[in-house]
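User: Fold both of these, please.

Assistant: Here is the first one.
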Amino acid sequence: MTDTVSATPGGDVGQIAPGAAGTASGASASPADDASSPGFAGGGGFSPEQQAQMLQWMVEAGSMTQAEADAMLKDAGIEVQKPEASAVDEHLQGLGYGFEPAEDPMQFKLPEMFDATDRATTGDIVEADAQVRGWLFAARLPAQIGSAIADEAARVSRRTERMTPADRAVYQVEQKAQLQKLWGVEYKDKLALAQQLTREVDKKTGGGLLSFLETSGAGDSALIIAQLYEQAHRLNLRHKAA
């Protein structure tokens, strides 16, 4: 994958990997007590600090204004004090600086579902660990953001495996609505860019990512889709600035 991601037309769908099938190794998990309702800045299993951080990343990448992020946090009842950035800082952040890619796959901190470090594990977990780290590294994600995406993928996977087909359909609609609210008329274009990055990573790493996103439900998560778009956008900005 190069430092640029070209958007191709994506259907009006709420999934990052529509139509994929099969399972990724180590993708299954036992039920957990994570059944909170989805919401971009209103819960979804994330702490107030995590929700604020996700929105702040989007502000720094230029995908929403500070006022819009503050309004979402206010609606969720979250108060966060943020230091003001200088004009120079904001310009550099807009070009993706301050979001340097992880230098090594081991910099990503994975949730227990995928993590094979420092504990006795089965072969499936060891393989899942390598796969997930490989996907995040191939996407050239910063360590902190890649780790947050892995956490969200594990949370969604635990939640969706307890869902009926009807529940899963409702979840997809809810997550799509979150992105449509966030992106407005740019929804289709931004979704297409996120999908294109996902396809490139899947191809570069030998496959498995698209099927994992589909079967686990992680490909429906508004948080994951939004962060993949932000990364694709950063890669394009870096390429143009080079």
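And the second sequence with its predicted structure:
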Amino acid sequence: MALGTAALASCQTHPIRSVVQRASELSERATARWPEVTEVRDYAEVLLEWQAKPAAGILTRG
């Protein structure tokens, strides 16, 4: 989860499509497997917040 969060942080202003895709996949799979783990829930929240930012909009809304 820490690596996923770091990847999102690294492309705050210039989103990279593959990073966004892999970050979403990580969240989906981790949430399905370990929904009770705090780090998984925290990562899903970070991803949602990141996706709501204007810079991410072009890649996350379609």
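Residues 18 and 59 are 10 Å apart (CA to CA).
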